[in-house]
Amino acid sequence: MEENSKLDKIVEARMKLKARFEQQMAETPSVSDTRPMGSGAPNRHGMPQLPIGQTRTVKWPVLDLGFKPDVPLSKWKLVVDGEVESPVTLTWDEFMALPQTSDVSDFHCVTTWSRMDVPWVGVRLADIAALVMPKPTATHVLCHGYDQYTTNLSLEEALKEDVLLVHTADGKPLERDHGGPVRMITPQLYAWKGSKWISRIQFLPKNQLGFWELRGYSNTAYPWRNDRYS
Fold first, then answer.
1. Which of 117, 124, 121, 118 is nearest to 102 (CA)?
2. Residue 15: Cβ within 10 Å count
3. Shortest CA distance to 53 belongs to which of 227, 230, 187, 186?
């Protein structure tokens, strides 16, 4: 009964967030671009499956800042704070008790490779946002990794249905090399917008550039516009 009540509250709060940002989400390029650049059949958002300048790969290349944090599940925590009504710090068990989402989506790296049709399991960022309820002043999130990495997203991008904090990929626990135990994925943007080894989601009243954005990468990162660098 208590679990059902908690789920009902998350769903209700997520629907309120959806209504608040629905128009902005509908106007983002990964949904509304009338002349997207790429090839292949349309994906779920109507964009060509393979963005311009990308090459399909079956392997999953490993890219990081040269440091791969080793975070045991017993010590893993996710802080969600900033411009929110109810900040939380989730343990692994609390994170896994949230609604779990299975999805299949594509993974586009700015270094020109794309891994297609990856099966994921994780928690929607929108459900985590529903748990903490962003204040009306919140416009962006800054995601932090255990490796000190940061990256920024507008809320209209972060709250999309296929933006997940994943713990499972290809039917098995997410490997440390790829950001395990938990990383964020952003199928509608280049993959650097999803922090590996995620440790904190900070809601902000304005945009704040992350690690690569401060070093000349695009603030918006739309693959179908070849939007790699600023």
1. 121
2. 12
3. 227
Nearest to 223 by CA among 31, 26, 89, 86: 31
Phi/psi zone of residue 38: left (φ > 0), alpha (ψ -120 to 50 degrees), beta? left
Residue 10 binned pLDDT confidence (cut-offs 50, 70, 90): confident
Count other C-beta atoms under 10 Å from residue 102's C-beta.
10
Q: Is the peptide bond before 205 cis (omega within 30 degrees of 0)?
A: no
Amino acid of residue 143: C
Please name the amino acid found at residue 229: Y
Q: Is 216 helix (H, G, I), strand (E, B) or coil?
A: coil
Distance between CA atoms of residues 19 and 228, nearest Å: 30
Given the structure tokens 């809601």, which residue do they identify? 203
Backbone angles phi, psi at 10, to 5 degrees: -65, -45
Report pLDDT for 3. 65
Cα(126)–Cα(148) distance, integer angstroms:
23
Task: Name the pTM for this structure.
Answer: 0.94
pLDDT in tens, 112-151: 999 999 999 999 999 999 999 999 999 999 999 999 999 9
Rounded to whole angstroms, the Cα distance separating 200 from 202 reads 6
Contact by Cβ (8 Å): 197, 147: yes
Q: What is the pLDDT of residue 139?
A: 97
